[in-house]
Amino acid sequence: QVQLVESGGGLVQPGGSLRLSCEASGFTFSMYRMNWYRQAPGKGRELVAGITSGDGRTTYAESVKGRFTISRDNAKNTVYLQMNSLKPEDTAVYYCYAQRLGGWNNYWGQGTQVTVSS
After folding, report:
1. How many CA atoms lie within 13 A of 7 on its CB side?
2. What per-residue string of b and e applies to 26-62 under the rule 16 or more CB within 10 Å gives b?
3. What CA–CA distances, in Å, run from 3 to 27, 78, 98, 114?
4. What pLDDT is recorded for position 90?
5. What is the pLDDT of residue 76?
6. Spatial distance between the Cα atoms of 99 and 34, rounded to a whole number of angstroms
7. At residue 104, does pLDDT exceed 90?
8. Mean pLDDT score of the chain, rounded to an integer?
9. Mean pLDDT on 39-51
10. DSSP alpha helices (H): ranges in 54-106?
């Protein structure tokens, strides 16, 4: 059974930090590109950051570059999103997404709420 379980969300003041985790099971984690998406109220889901399966290359949305860092630990089947200098506009539900090209199934986590407010 495939599972992606996010954790680490919560309420934080502007300028603060949070670290999200997404623990995977039920598939070969190391073969998947891992991504973090977010969806704010009334908006579509947007890609925040991604990390490749092989060489660990990372990509970021312009809005989070220099503030967020994605990383993965294949031994723990876990991907992380370190979020620093948080802004109110970072408020959203954050989702973990496992992606593999070539006709393989892709998987979503259930999401974790991040609220940035004073």
Report:
1. 5
2. ebebeebbbbbbbeeeeeeeeebbbbebeeeeeebee
3. 9, 11, 10, 21
4. 98
5. 97
6. 6
7. no
8. 96
9. 96
10. none
- Distance between the two ends of the chain, CA-based, in angstroms? 40
pLDDT tens digits for range 63-91: 999 999 999 999 999 999 999 999 999 99
Q: Residue 107: which of 20, 26, 8, 19 has the closest Cα?
A: 26
Single out the residue of 58, 43, 59, 49 nearest to residue 91, CA to CA.
43
State pLDDT tens for residues 6-43.
999 999 999 999 999 999 999 999 999 999 999 999 99
Among all chains, which residue has been given the structure tokens 């969806």?
39
Integer-rounded Cα Rg, in Å, for the chain is 14
Altogether, the residues listed in the chain come to a count of 118
Distance CA 50, CA 30 (A): 14
d(C-alpha 63, C-alpha 109), whole Å: 22
**What letter represents residue 38's amino acid?**
R
Taking the C-alpha atoms of 95, 59, 78 and 1 in order, what is their torsion angle to the nearest 10 degrees?
50
